[in-house]
Amino acid sequence: GQNIDQPTEMTATEGAIVQINCTYQTSGFNGLFWYQQHAGEAPTFLSYNVLDGLEEKGRFSSFLSRSKGYSYLLLKELQMKDSASYLCAVNLSDTGRRALTFGSGTRLQVQP
Amino acid sequence: DAGITQSPRHKVTETGTPVTLRCHQTENHRYMYWYRQDPGHGLRLIHYSYGVKDTDKGEVSDGYSVSRSKTEDFLLTLESATSSQTSVYFCAISNRDRLDSYEQYFGPGTRLTVT
Fold first, then answer.
1. B41 and chain A: CB distance < 8 Å anywhere?
2. Count of CB atoms within 10 A of residue A38's CB?
3. What are the beta bridge partners of residue B70?
4. Does the beta-carbon distance from A99 to B44 stay under 8 Å?
5. CB A24 within 8 A of CB A13
6. A19-73 pLDDT, tens per residue?
């Protein structure tokens, strides 16, 4: 199948660093996305990785290892507004569909 | 922000009635998608379109049909709504003509309740 696994919930403290992991099947892999979704709102794009390594964008970074079927999203200097769900999504060319497959999301709670 | 709107934003309907949700874009993107989002399941693809009159099924297409007669509009129809179709429905668009990215932009969502 196209299982994409990520933790259901995480809690972290304001100002700290948190890492959200995502694992996926490697067959047909053609790119990985991270989205942020605040409660009651639409998902918004955070990052895209297609090659191995780290992509940094301000306080957010995303890492990919294609051979391990593994990615993580790193959030630094956490702010209260970072409380949201974080969705990992993979483009799998062997599904025969030109669309993304999403994980169930990780709900992050940032505490003071 | 990408120009995507969805209508209606909220709807309550009775079991067995037909329902049509509309997604409208002003970006002239070729690809459009319909997802549903339920607790514990994340976003699941219902149908997608890769051009006018070109559509294909996603992983949860049973009970849904779609139509795309114009680039800017993608309609999702529930022919006979059931309680299991109570969900939040998101439309998304992407410009897959760019080879380096399949980034999708999402509409604001439609909350549908079937009683």
1. yes
2. 13
3. B73
4. no
5. no
6. 999 999 877 787 899 999 999 999 999 999 989 999 999 999 999 999 999 999 9
